[in-house]
Each structure stands twice: as structure tokens, then as C-alpha cells.
Amino acid sequence: MAPVLAKARRTGALLNPIDFLDGFKMFGSLFKPYVRYCMEEEGCMEYMRALLRDSELFRAYVTWAEKHEQCSRLKLSDMLVKPHQRLTKYPLLLKSVLKKTDDHVMPPNATPCHATPCHPMPCLALMPGAPGSC
């Protein structure tokens, strides 16, 4: 995305969604850790709750850490869901870009993605390591 933004700033031209194609082709490798993280989020949250319940040392550390400015007043549970929340905003961003795009013509090698109940984030469902069908 950085090269696309740099080009737009340099030329003063509007962003061209087609310029993002190379970045989207890299989604599979870039978002692989997100897929695993999201798939294991529930277990991670349960583990955190167990540690908070059973370990006074962990509770003391979390209380100390959450008071630091770097945490922006977020609790540990809030920080743990942040990647998931960020990831779920991408379809909204892409829909907004598409709505603001003058030319809705897709390049010949592009494959459209559509949400389904099984895959609310369909492009991520196509990535290696993502859960399969329902």
C-alpha cells in the first residue's frame, strides 16, 4: 500500500484501486498469521481468563502493564481482540473504495470475492491455511 500512497502523493492523482492489485495478491502470505490468530482467539481468551483467575503474579503484571501509556488505557482483553477487529474492517474499506471508484471494471485476471454465511471475509477464506467450507 505504501508505494500506491507515495505515487498518489507524488502525482497528486486520486488513488487507483487497480494499483492495489499487487498488494492484494500478497494477502495470502501477509495475513497467514492473522488467520491462525483469529482461529485460535477463543482459546487464547480462555487461557488469559484462566491465568487472571489462577495466577496472582500474572494479575499483578497485567495490572501493572495496563497502566502504562503504551497500552492507551486498553485492557489485555481489548488488546487481544484488536487484530481480529482490524481484520474485519478490511471488507468495509474495500466496499468503500469500490463505491468511490469511477470505473468498476475488473482486470481480466481478477477473481471477485463474495461473502457467505460460512465466510464473512471471503478473500481470506481463499487463503492457504484458512478454514475450509462450513
Describe this structure as you would to a colleague.
With 134 residues, the chain is mainly α. The protein has a domain at 35-90. It is built from eight helices and no strands. It has helices spanning 2-11, 21-25, 27-30, 32-39, 41-54, 56-66, 76-100, 122-125. α5 packs antiparallel against α7. The longest helix is centred in the middle third of the chain and has 25 residues, at 76-100. Residues 115-120 and 124-134 have low confidence and may be disordered.
Keywords:
single chain, 134 residues, mainly alpha, 8 helices, elongated
Please identify the structural class as seen in this structure.
mainly alpha
Sum up the overall morphology in one term: elongated
Which blocks of ≥5 consecutive residues have pLDDT under 50? 115-120, 124-134
Oligomer kind: single chain
> Which band does the percent of strand residues land in?
under 5%
Tell me the number of strands.
0
Q: Return Rg in Å.
A: 19 Å
